[in-house]
Amino acid sequence: MKNIVEAKDLTFEYLIHDDQGKVEDTIIALDHINVTIKEGEFVAVLGHNGSGKSTFAKHLNGILSPKSGMLWVNNIDLSNGEHIWEVRKDVGMVFQNPDNQIVATIVEEDVAFGPENLGVEPSEIRKRVDEAIHTVEMDDYKRVSPNQLSGGQKQRIAIAGVIAMQPKCIIFDESTAMLDPIGRSQVMKTMQKLNKEQGITIIHITHYMQEAILADRIIVIDEGKVLLSGSPKEVFKNVEEIRRIGLDVPDSTYLIYLLRQKGYDLDPTLLTTKEVVDAIWQLKSNN
Amino acid sequence: MAIKIKQLTHIYNEGTPFEKVALHDVNLHIKDGSFLGIIGHTGSGKSTLIQMFNGLLKPTRGEVYVKGINIHEDGVDKKHIRQSVGLVFQYPEYQLFEMTVYDDVAYGPKNLGLEGDALKERIESSLKAVGLDEEFWQKSPFELSGGQKRRVAIAGVLAMNPDILILDEPTAGLDPKGREELFSQLKEMHETRHLTIVLISHSMEDVARYVEELIVLYRGEIAFKGDTREVFKHRERLEEIGLGVPQIRHIMDALKEKGMLVDTDVLTVEEAASKLIACLEKEVNNA
């Protein structure tokens, strides 16, 4: 399968200016980072606040441009801050606050905003909007004003707006952070559906470890570098390392870790509730 | 009694086609020195309720008492009520505006008329209470990380010297370490300053770990109120109303269902581990 994202030695710095506008300090947000993401992959990106994970995501559709290094997204060279309009057709982004990304007063008009700006034919827009709203299961709300929707519903409308542009990849930049448990699970289901049924590459930045379990692969970023990369099982078995950098592991993994500390013989890569329950039950039956 | 709510009903846009009952006949007592969590899905009335606590909203019907004073009675000094009940909104860091952290925290107490050593003492103790050391005091709030900014904003409310601190999702968007630090600091303030703390949260794991009592709101009414452990016993009902129990309970409940004689009534992973170990050891001794 081909790579949709290829970053080589990608580096980015934030410059801090003093009162006179002189550069006072530089903060290295991304430090020669190397990441490849395959088309159709579902990747979760974890890291503490300020680790560089959002900075990385903002490079993928040209919101930020690298200071040095190479970046190719969907075969478009983004190393020099050019071609950003092209890449934005292919890579959509859903942000954290649902209220900041809705522009229209009626749901279906909001979803149509993206394709309209791409210059899509009106009949085609109609079709895409209907399909996108159907995909996020908001058919009953087409003509409703977005301010009457819950946070999770608004996020799904924002997602529909991105889908209507028919991207190959969608980045979710902490899109679940402001939602209640139902809203979060709705958005997670939508992500999985887009990934499985339409083959859209999903890059999900989150602080919820329970959501990261659903990904094919987890990338942990710390101090602007890739610290760990692998399947959820491979990554979360490093309990101490993950907690050291201010993150957490899923409760199921942590329970296994605590039991192992007390000398119980359990596989540290157990992850789902069922796996953990079966393993503990086995332990009991062996007694 | 810190706060008493009597037969409170609140209706938005009453008498218009957009009429919405946000709270219905709510009765509530919050004792001095409580550490209380409010949970409920989007639209259940949580934010409306906390805006009642310091008189930001006037209820359609019913009464609100703060420290025994009916706050909507004629002649009541609202300014005094708002000083006594500090309200920290969602994403309070968006409200920072001063050049330095120190000045930002000073804004409130200065407006209360504090000066000199009293002012200095108030600012410094508030900053220390949220864990911001002196090295941060002269920095611009905008140089800080998300978690640090949030703590500056909370220090600004603390500097008003409230008796009751109300927080609307104080940890939304923070990484696991930031969440843990903030909750530990709130707990310490609660213990050392005898501050009454009421907070809204969407994380069942966080409220299970930290708060002593819970209020569950559902469709503008109180579905449960009581000791955190007691409230979480109602797993089925909590799931029906769009909430749930901490993740770890799913593992414990499944083990019990299989036939393990374990007490499932746990709030944290650590507690679950020790209950499971006790159970496994008992098996060994019996064998």
Topology:
The complex is a heterodimer of chains A (287) and B (287).
Chain A: E1 3-17, E2 23-38, E3 42-46, H1 53-60, E4 68-73, E5 76-77, H2 84-90, E6 91-94, H3 107-117, H4 122-135, H5 151-163, E7 169-173, H6 181-198, E8 201-205, H7 209-212, E9 217-222, E10 225-230, H8 232-236, H9 239-244, H10 251-261, H11 273-286
Parallel strand pairs in A: 3-8, 3-9, 6-7, 7-8
Antiparallel strand pairs in A: 1-2, 1-4, 4-5, 9-10
Helix pairs in contact in A: 3-4, 3-5, 4-5, 5-6
Chain B: E1 3-12, E2 20-30, E3 35-39, H1 46-53, E4 61-66, E5 69-70, H2 78-84, E6 85-88, H3 101-111, H4 116-129, H5 146-158, E7 164-168, H6 176-192, E8 196-200, H7 204-210, E9 213-218, E10 221-227, H8 228-231, H9 235-240, H10 247-258, H11 269-286
Helix pairs in contact in B: 3-4, 3-5, 4-5
Provide a brief overview of the structure.
Chain B: It is a peripheral membrane protein. Chain A has 287 residues and is α/β, with parallel strands linked by helices.
Could you describe the 3D structure shown?
Chain B: It is found in: Cell membrane. Chain B: Its main location: membrane. The complex is a heterodimer of chains A (287) and B (287). With 287 residues, chain A is an alpha/beta fold. Chain A has 2 domains: 246 residues, Rossmann fold, CATH 3.40.50.300; 38 residues, no CATH class. Chain A has a 6-stranded mixed β-sheet, with helices on both faces. In chain A, a hairpin with a 2-residue loop joins strand 4 and strand 5. Chain A is globular, with a radius of gyration of 21 Å. The mean pLDDT of chain A is 91. Chain B has 287 residues and is α/β, with parallel strands linked by helices. Chain B has 2 domains: 243 residues, Rossmann fold; 42 residues, no CATH class. Chain B contains 11 helices and 10 strands. In chain B, strands 6-7-8-3-9-10 form a 6-stranded mixed β-sheet, with helices on both faces. A 4-stranded antiparallel β-sheet of chain B has the order 2-1-4-5, with helices on one face. In chain B, a hairpin with a 2-residue loop joins strand 9 and strand 10. In chain B, helix 3 runs parallel beside helix 5 and helix 4 crosses helix 5. The N and C termini of chain B lie far apart (54 Å). Classes of the chains: A alpha/beta (287), B alpha/beta (287). Chains A and B meet through helix 6, helix 10 and helix 11 of A and helix 6, helix 10 and helix 11 of B.
